[in-house]
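Shipment paperwork, digital attachment
Item: protein structure file
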Amino acid sequence: MKKEKRMKKTAILIFLVFLSVQVSSASWFALGVNAGYRYLDDLVLGEIYGDGYIFEPYIRYSIPRLLTLELSYEGGYKKSGPVGFFQEDSTLSVTGLQLSGIIPIPIFRIRNVSTYLKIGIAHYFYKQDIDSEFVRQQVDHSKLTTVLGGGLNIYLFRGLFLTAEVKSIPLRVNPFDINVDLGGMRILFGVGYQFWLNL
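Attachment content:
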């Protein structure tokens, strides 16, 4: 609980910094959406539900000479499978909100291509519903965690750009008092549009 409270305070602090930064002519916003594949680290749940496809709309705001902030939503992962001794029907869904800082990391110099490191925090929601003949079991919980990844943007024309990204999000939880790992690697590709604020 103490760790989650610290992470919530950090998220609030980052958001306040985001609001307090003075907008300049070098500032820009970007809107985009990524889609791709997420892996499920837990071996047992991986056998039941498997990995799956996800989508991730986002908004980015550039803080001149500092970093870019990104607020995104991850959705799309909802899988079904039999669980337990009686192989009862069940569903698992995982969604999340992410607030990340994007730091430019010039790995190589290619025109119209930029690489970056992404570090942030996330609030994930997970639901599991087991349709038992005896007692129906349901979990609807959430947990704070971290985001670590990297990627590249390929700028095309008039603010249009393509994105490729890899990131890891740990998510150890305890549904039904059993420790499981809902975290895993994400591999994403997407498109976005960037526009400048001329003030």
